[in-house]
Design a protein that fits this description.
- With about 250 residues, the chain is of the alpha/beta class.
- The protein has one domain: Alpha-Beta Complex (2-enoyl-CoA Hydratase, Chain A, domain 1).
- The chain has 11 helices and 9 strands.
- Strands 1-2-3-5-7-9 form a 6-stranded mixed β-sheet, with helices on both faces. It has a 3-stranded parallel β-sheet with strand order 4-6-8.
- Strand 2, helix 1 (about 30-45) and strand 3 (about 50-55) form a beta-alpha-beta unit.
- About 45% of the residues are buried.
Length: about 250
């Protein structure tokens, strides 16, 4: 597949890194690998805390792969693709380990969902966010519950409907980001320091704390798949196909 997902364990800290040459966009192969790695690291007795990050490019994550979106020709393929985002979010939610997300650049669409799914999210000061799915004729249906949980329904409605970039400072004030850093060097340092601290915490207490953090999301296995069904249907529309085609021709 284009791009990769790598995992590395050091001192009880698992670092999961993903990359795609097109601004760290997410095709189904990378989504599947991300979901698997998060689950594997969550079940590994040598891991106490998980860090999720991307590498290369100017964006942390540009969201769904347009190349794959435009190639979807039936509902089953659409459902399978958007279920990839559901599986990543749900595996973070269900992990007994604390999941830290390190946002080293702009987050768009599904990238905002990844940032929102983290138990604690660090970002650089230029890590602006945008939910652009509505412009495509789809909508942020799958990532919506994770984003709304962090920033509230009113703010979620705002960024979902005007699909403009919002500053990292705005995201910090709304609770999507916990910490803003001046640059990537400071980001890496603060993420590692925090991860090291978390790795020394009681795993039993961590699990109980996560259950409180995610209280009220017990229906997400079903909810996010139902949301994926909406996106899987809408992605087949002429509106969406035309939008993506025009975007790629720019």
């Amino acid at each position: 597949m284009d791009g990769f997902v790598n995992s590395e364990i050091n001192n009880k800290i698992a670092v999961i890194t993903f990359h795609h040459p097109k601004s760290n966009s997410l095709p189904s192969a990378i989504l599947s690998k991300l979901a698997d790695e998060i689950k594997n690291m969550s079940e590994d007795s040598n891991v106490n805390v998980i860090v999720l990050k991307s590498t290369g490019g100017k964006a942390f994550c540009a969201g769904a792969s347009f190349d794959e979106l435009i190639s979807i020709t039936d509902f089953e393929d659409g459902l399978r693709f958007f279920s990839g985002f559901a599986n990543v979010i749900n595996n973070i939610r269900k992990s007994k380990k604390f999941v830290i997300v390190s946002v080293n650049g702009k987050a768009i669409g599904g990238g905002v969902g990844l940032a929102a799914a983290g138990d604690y999210t660090f970002a650089v000061k230029n890590a602006d966010i945008k939910l652009s799915e509505f412009a495509l004729g789809i909508g942020p249906f799958v990532v919506g519950p994770a984003v709304e949980r962090k920033i509230g329904k009113s703010a979620f409605a705002q960024i979902s409907t005007d699909f403009e970039f919002y500053s990292a400072e705005w995201a910090l004030n709304k609770g999507l980001y916990a910490v803003l850093c001046e640059n990537e060097e400071e980001l890496n340092s603060k993420v590692y320091t925090f991860a090291e601290k978390m790795s020394n915490m009681s795993m039993e207490a961590t699990h109980e704390l996560k259950k409180i953090f995610w209280e009220g999301t017990e229906d997400w296995d079903e909810l996010l798949i139902n949301r994926a069904k909406i996106s899987g249907r809408l992605v087949l529309s002429d509106f969406t196909k035309d939008y993506i085609k025009k975007f790629k021709e720019k």
